[in-house]
Amino acid sequence: MHSFGYRANALLTFSVTALAFICAIASFSDKFSNQNPSAEIQILNINRFKKQSYGNDEVSLTLDISADLQSLFTWNTKQVFAFVAAEYETPKNSLNQVSLWDVIIPDKEHAKFRIQTSNKYRFIDQGHNLRGKEFNLTLHWHVMPKTGKMLADKIIMPGYSLPDAYK
Amino acid sequence: MGWIGETVDSIKSIKIRQLLTQAVTLGMIVTSALIIWKAMMCVTGTESPVVVVLSGSMEPAFQRGDILFLRMTKDPIRTGEIVVFKIDGRDIPIVHRVIEVHERKTTGKVDVLTKGDNNDVDDIGLYADGQMWLHRHHIMGRAVGFLPYVGWVTIIMTEKPIIKYLLIGAMGLLVITSKD
Fold this sequence. Notes:
The complex is a heterodimer of chains A (167) and B (180). Chain A has 167 residues and is of the alpha+beta class.
């Protein structure tokens, strides 16, 4: 009962259990944080709007994105992954979501920002339905903890639209 | 040195009934571990409720050696979700984020495009030849929780199998030589 093996085993089991418990509590403490992020997106310019050679529409635009995600950071937060996606409907597809831009926010200081950028990822439709299309821009965020449960949410901003003719 | 002498003595003095009892106990332990694993599969709705992160394509959020807890529900797949998927014909599950979704009105089927946060390009290069999109049946689960570093045990055991054999051998020895 007092051999080295038994003591090592007991110590290991206890420390693993204690660690697991601490991780669970750390994750649970995230429930008590008060979160109120805000964001605003403007389309500054439609740079290019054309139909590709294989028939799909492609848009390139410049966005002005400003956001305050500081309230999402808790002591258990490793980083926040934020991205902007365009959402729209077409005759064939009930929902299309295309991610246009994303950023990894490593800490609270970087969580309040304003950036003007063209879309990082290509905005290509499945088809040629984008002329005059109305779409929402959503800012999503994904809070990645140091340990435990991840949290994701978004702000939907409706009311954007593409021009009626190719450019 | 005395510990080795003790071990050899106790192996010599083993009785058959005691040995059988210990074999059954070992079998019970292994079976309960299997039961817990299968129960987790039922609860989370996915074949692999826990995966180990093998590459650096989702850094800095997920490093090699972290483990992810997965869940699969009937909810539709949307951008931003971190999903685990397998390409047809390949064994290794990949953990990346969904960046594009196109859902058909009539059938409800989805076309999904993924990308690792730390990669510069999307995953088209990873998919099978000629495949442009992932579909629901490729996706094994969504990542809902995460624990750092714990997965290193699995990585070491896979990449240096000798450590696996050493560990199992040592555990077997411990079980055989324990007096209860």
